[in-house]
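To assess whether the prediction recovers the assembly geometry, we first specified each molecular entity separately, as shown.
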Amino acid sequence: MSERLLEVKDLSIEIATRRGPATIVDGIDLHVDKGETLGIVGESGCGKSLTMLSLVRLLPNKIRVSNGTAAFAGRDLLQLSSRELREVRGGKIGFVFQDPMTSLNPVMKIGEQLIEPLLYHREMSKAEARKRAGELLRLVGIPGAEQRLDSYPHELSGGMRQRVMIAIGLACEPELLIADEPTTALDVTIQAQIVDLVKDLRKRLGMSVVWITHDLALIAGLADRICVLYAGTVVEDAPVEQLFAEPAHPYTRGLLASIPRMDGEDAERLNSIGGTPPEPGRRPAGCPFAPRCPMAQEICRTTVPELQPLRGETTPHRVACHVANRVLEAA
Amino acid sequence: MTAQPAIAPLAAADDATVSLWRDAWTRLSRNKLAVASLAVIAILALVAIFGPWLTPYDFLSQDLEARNLSPNWAHPFGTDELGRDVFSRVIYGTRTAFVVAIVVTGIAATLGVVLGAVAGYFGGLIDRFVMWCTDTTMSVPQLLLVVVINASLKPPLVNFMEAQYELTRNPFFRNSIIVDFVLVFGSMALILWPPYARLIRAQVLSIRNRPYVTAARALGLSTPIIISRYVIPNSIGPLIVAISAGLGNAMVLESAFSFLGVGVNPPIPSWGNMISDGLQVWRNHAHLLAAPAIVLGLATVAFSFLGDGLNDALNPKGSK
Amino acid sequence: MLLFVLKRLGIWIPTVIVVILGVYALAFYGAGDPIKLIFMRAPGDVAYDPVRIEAIREQAGLNQPFIQQFGNYLWNALHGNFGNSLVNGRSVWSMIAAAAPVSFQLGLLAIVLTAVVAIPLGMVAGMKQNSKTDYVILGTALLVWAIPAYVAGPLLMVLLITILPGSAVPYGWGGIFDAKIILPLLVLSFQPIALIVRQTRAAVIEVLSEDFVRTARSKGLPETVVALRHILRPVLTPIVTQLGLIMISIINGAIFVELVFGLPGLGRLTVGALTSSDYPIVLAITVIGSFLVMASNLLVDVLYPILDPRAADAMRSR
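The predicted structure of the complete assembly is given in tokenized form:
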């Protein structure tokens, strides 16, 4: 087995509501190996962004980590002092956020925003940092890179802005790049460009990537491994080929069935999963997916399933489902 | 079956409105400062309404035996240099303050709402003209403008009243208080309307382009219905906040003008002219300054906190 | 850019003229016959000598139509001639010139004090929203906002004298380096400070919820750098647009503060002129006050695109 870079154990996140704290993320376990690309997939509101934001304490007000550890290169991120945390943010872990329009400061030039991590982590001089910033923009494929340093964000297109965001995330050559739905706000053609760019950069820089998305199809060609999240829990975790070949959780099957295919026999029909995920604070007693699950049994409504290796084997394919074996047989 | 869907959404909308107000009320009642302010305002309002029955003395009756008394049991706020009971005068001052604040805010808000709605609805040249008027009015220092209006319009108005009296012998025209109030109401309303106009115009503009209004228009709803169903209900929240702040503002202005001698003139008691009188003698008789100043401070602080509480309660988004 | 400034001026100059016209018309039609006003104050029976009055009227150009008189007034005002006082016959300009330095120095100090005190306080309150610090700052601002200058002034004087027995009453003018200026300066700055604290706090809270603040934090910048580089600038932009409001609030306040603390500035000149119905002075000060407010609004209009590059772009495309 390759070396672990990040290992999150039993992470729980809660939100303060008028009726008291409500759990949003419920005991998540996940890990990222060095050089690996992990895709985190789930519907909006399932806690996938919050999980990653919580690692570097960027959670919004009223939302906090209530339990768990997150070992990153041997240290628990959740126990770091604020000074140590600052070294990790931008230095060891780079971020790319969803909407490049709002995630870049509208009143600062791109160059100013790009050199900031270099100034604070690398202690470069302004001139050095600026030179490096130009290289970074060239690295992420922005034409006329050096001239663009003096542009304001609103002067660039959406795709170009997201490239700038990626350049900021990569500025200090982090060991881990967390991309939080980086293509959701972009046109489909631009999405593919950004995916290819990250694929290429990952190879060249040898970093690990966590790519958060709700789009299984998009990530299929990018990720080594995929974690499927539902209602704040990991329901399935498998290398990408295995997940697509034999999805063992009914929710994963539902997600896959909702991807349009041009080659299959029911190309003209799209499947969707009925119902909606549980609201925070109103989680069912057993498996959180049970109320929507077509195969739910009595045990699903009473007992929370553990995340276990599929069929009891020592495979990297793990699933949290009481009826996983039956799901596979039914396929 | 066909009528059913048409009715249901409207009923639902009304329910939503009711619960919105109830929600706002719940939020407001949880804000201790706002509730306390509301209580202070309610007490002052009751004092203003029932003043004549509450005052132990007439606000004009002079008792030259009891001049410049410090507060005591017979005169809770003491007496002034003419032996008038300060407590009674403060109570009558409360009446003046409330009458002026309510009438002025009423005129200013009505004027502002109408002009703002017209500007926002018709747009174009009308809009630009109304907005130019608000900008211009707001760029003249308020106090100076009111001073000029008062100083210039008082003589002709007094002349007019006297001429009317000569003609009709109607004692109404001999009443100098009326001149004071007309001038104060008029000049203050004239400087206070622009914020209301801006507020309503902005509301009309933003609501006019919302998808649900476009949808309503596509359904063939007429303009008056759209305005009464969508524009007005959506503007009431911000308008209430503005009026609450406006009432406090008008009270401060009224006493400011009385203080300068261009507002309500003696013998009508006003907090402002009481403060102005008290300022001459505060070194020897501090209570003459303190009593009206504290009550005025209390009233304006209460309106200010209430306005803030209302803002938080009615715009929950901003108070997050 | 130059075109934009010229365009703004094209709207601005007529507005200034209309405002002066309005104020002038009020005084012209309301105050009555200026000649009679002068003569009513003169000793003897001159006020009742119609022949003499007509002669003077003609000589002073007061029999011309209104518009022509207004034109003259405007033309003369442009050259610093606002006529003469009805009370003592001195030129209004010289009286204003004598009083203005006091008011301008005090007002400028108040603006500086407001910027220096209110923006940091508002920043702190906003960054620590709903904390005790926030409540104390916001509560004090609301309290100060609600207390008028003519109430705060005397009350502070009373307090000062009771707390520090034997200290002199801060009355009169001794220049900006005299300790007597502290109390009037404070009272004058109260309202603008309260205004700006509240606006800064609201703006900070809004900016804090922006995604780009999260981006700044994700870069590992120290919190002070996040506050000063990423939050302060977008917060300052709307604050600067309040300059006109601050001017109005300071002009209003100066009238009371100068009266209460016995400062020989424009405010006291106004009140004095008002009580003696000296219209040329009231008129001149109103014109100058409106001009100052409108000039600061123009300044804000011109500065805005420099502060916000997006506005500059929108302007260029217009």
